């Protein structure tokens, strides 16, 4: 038995999600110093599900709209859990709860909502 749980993202999760996102961005761009972290951009997406191990956020799934206007589901995991089966479980749960065709039908609205979310997070957190 593990202390792993998945749950829909709620507002109190956003600080930890933003931190995981920043860690991922820093790991992708080693030239950026942590203090120089740039504001969130549209690739932050709309967080959907959180993964926790022993009450610590270890990852989350999100949806974003790509340049072609298609909804794309992705995950961000703490480096210690990248490639772990939990990442696959998180994505499977997300796809079950949020069918792609439903997101696709309203991709433009989701893109606009994501932009508002990113602007709000940049000003608040």
Could you characterize the architecture of this molecule?
The protein has 125 residues and is an alpha+beta fold. Helices cover 42% and strands 24% of the residues. It is built from four helices and four strands; from the N terminus they run βαβββααα. The chain has a four-stranded antiparallel sheet, with helices on both faces. The longest helix is centred in the last third of the chain and has 18 residues. It is globular and about 40 Å long.
Radius of gyration: 14 Å
Note the gap between the termini. Answer: 35 Å
Q: Note the main sheet.
A: 4 strands, antiparallel
Number of contiguous helices: 4
Structural class call reads alpha+beta
Low-confidence stretches: none
Q: What percentage of residues falls in helices of 4 or more residues?
A: 40-55%
Strand tally is 4
The succession of helices and strands, N to C, reads EHEEEHHH
Q: Strand content of the residues, in percent?
A: 15-25%
**Average pLDDT:** 85
Strand line-up of the largest beta sheet: 1-2-3-4
Which overall shape is indicated by the principal axes computed on the Cα atoms?
globular
